[in-house]
TrEMBL record:
Belongs to the peptidase M20C family. It is an enzyme of class 3 (hydrolase). Keywords: Cobalt, Hydrolase, Metal-binding, Metalloprotease, Protease, Zinc. It holds the Pfam family M20_dimer. Residues 208-292 form the Peptidase M20 dimerisation domain. Gene3D superfamilies: Zn peptidases. One of its GO terms (molecular function) is metallodipeptidase activity. It catalyses: Hydrolysis of dipeptides, preferentially hydrophobic dipeptides including prolyl amino acids. This is Cytosol non-specific dipeptidase. It comes from Flavobacterium aquicola. Its cofactor is Zn(2+); Co(2+). Its EC number is 3.4.13.18. One of its GO terms (biological process) is proteolysis. NCBIfam families: aa-his-dipept (TIGR01893).
Length: 488
């Protein structure tokens, strides 16, 4: 990791981020970062503990003169999305993130950066460690597993937190103040099929869809980006209908909350169709590239003939239903909000597709700020896959966060932002899943707000954090701490 990162301003923020990025912290494998955070709190002599689900809470008393202010909860999540480019050799379980500076951006070499939500966590760490930053009484809440289930927030019990105001430091545009967010639900379709032997006289191909941007399946779902699983299915659908293509394997996408960037399939066709198949596929690829030339200029589809033909494949009748169910399943924006301009209300991300060995699964993340609409789309997906005989499971449902028009802390943040920047902030709800809505179940009277520095490309290896924005954000944070309202 470049020492230059630690020399960036504000140094207290970037040094804590650099410390954090030495610790592997994938979702559902947060043991090391939990211990790291507990050691950090204990080293400062602060009250530090973990709850039953292993969220970490650290308490720091108010600085002199701030004892009459409302108690503050500073909240961020410890886990990060682990994504890397296919040609990047990197072990997320053992290696720290390799960061570097690129103009105004901090990036990682071939992997996600962990700025989501590492910069928020680093902010809280810097405040906890400080001896010269005025602030009210603070409870630092570091939740686990935000990225793959929100289980830390979902299992935080009522009564643990004593604060009146919660600042969630997990928004990714520095001119935005978040007052609401979407909820979500995982939709998983699975089925089994009896494999059949590959017909004699067949040739095998590997098809690779790659070079897509990927991105956050909430914040980026409206951008018209390509979904590798849907693009792959277009190729398989045409190959099956016109040349009797049969699928041996598919491996597309990875995490539910990341728009899939890559998909690989192994297929067979009759040798007699070999030349016509390649020609036809290239025509379709050219059409798809033309469609996505603006949003996905680096899209590639590669066909490579296999030296060894797969021994078994999906039978035609199973494949008939599979490719049609995949075509029917909605991906992308389902409905825009009628109440907020340019806000996605409901969407779906067909995140991961696995086929092979007589089994297949399709994993989706459906999001919505309206519960009824969330389940409407989830049931539409369920219907598409149940019609082909799949078992469909709903899991990990979490609620959205409804805006509070009477938020006292919102008025404080808007006023400070205007004074510091000479313009109004963008006060908005977002389509990502923030933990505020979940935390509000057990803490309904807590005044909550979300903000953060500018981070682009979250959940993809193109993730990058703006250096100038971090400076603007840090100045904002310090002024907010000075202006927390007095107790009633």
């Amino acid at each position: 990791m470049s020492q230059e990162i630690r020399n960036l301003e504000p140094k207290v923020l970037w040094n804590k981020f650099a410390d954090l990025n030495t610790v592997p912290r994938p979702s559902k494998k947060e043991e090391r970062v939990i211990e790291f955070m507990k050691d950090f709190g204990n080293s400062l002599g602060l009250e530090t503990f973990e709850d039953e689900i292993r969220n970490v809470i650290i308490r720091k008393p108010a600085t002199a003169g701030m004892e009459n202010r409302k108690a503050l909860v500073l909240q961020g999540h410890l886990d990060m999305v682990h994504q890397k480019n296919a040609d990047t050799v990197f072990d997320f379980d053992t290696q720290g993130i390799d960061m570097y500076i690129d103009g105004d951006w901090v990036r990682a070499r071939g992997t996600t950066l962990g700025a989501d939500n590492g910069l928020g966590v680093a902010t809280i760490m810097a405040i906890l460690e400080s001896k010269d930053i005025p602030h009210p009484a603070i409870e630092a809440l570091f939740t686990i597993d935000e990225e793959t289930g929100m289980t830390g927030a979902l299992n935080l019990q009522g009564g643990i937190l004593k604060g009146d105001i919660l600042l969630n430091l997990d928004t990714e545009e520095d001119d935005e103040i978040g007052i609401g967010c979407a909820g979500g639900i995982d939709v998983t379709a699975t089925a089994e099929y009896d494999e059949e032997e590959t017909p004699e006289g067949s040739v095998g191909y590997t098809i690779k869809v790659k070079g897509l941007n990927g991105g956050h399946s909430g914040m980026d779902i409206h951008k018209g980006l390509g979904n590798a699983n849907k693009i792959m299915n277009r190729l398989l659908f045409d190959g099956f209908d016109n040349f009797g293509l049969q699928i041996a394997e598919i491996n597309g996408g990875s995490l539910r909350n990341a728009i899939p960037r890559e998909s690989t399939a192994k297929v067979i066709i009759a040798a007699v169709y070999d030349e016509a198949f390649v020609f036809d596929m290239q025509q379709i690829v050219n059409e798809i590239k033309a469609e996505f030339q603006t949003t996905e200029p680096n899209l590639e589809v590669v066909f490579e003939k296999l030296d060894a033909v797969p021994a078994t494949v999906m039978p035609p009748i199973a494949q008939f239903y599979f490719v049609r169910a995949m075509y029917t399943a909605h991906n992308g924006v389902y409905r825009m909000s009628a109440d907020f301009d340019d806000l996605v209300e409901t969407s779906n991300n067909i995140a991961k597709v696995e086929v092979g060995g007589g089994k297949f699964s399709v994993k989706c993340l459906t999001r919505s700020s309206v519960e009824s609409s969330k389940f409407d789309l989830a049931n539409a997906l369920r219907s598409a896959f149940e019609l082909m005989g799949c078992e469909v499971e709903f899991s990990g449902s979490y609620p959205g966060w409804s805006p509070n028009p009477k938020s006292e802390i919102l008025d404080v943040l808007v006023s400070i932002y205007e004074k510091q920047n000479g313009e109004k902030p963008n006060v908005a709800a977002c389509h990502a899943g923030l933990e505020c809505g979940i935390l509000g179940i057990n803490y309904p009277d807590m005044d909550m707000i979300s903000f953060g520095p500018t981070i682009h490309g979250a959940h993809s290896p193109d993730e990058r954090a703006s250096i100038s924005s971090a400076q603007k954000y840090w100045k904002f944070v310090l002024e907010i701490l000075k202006n927390i309202p007095v107790k009633n």
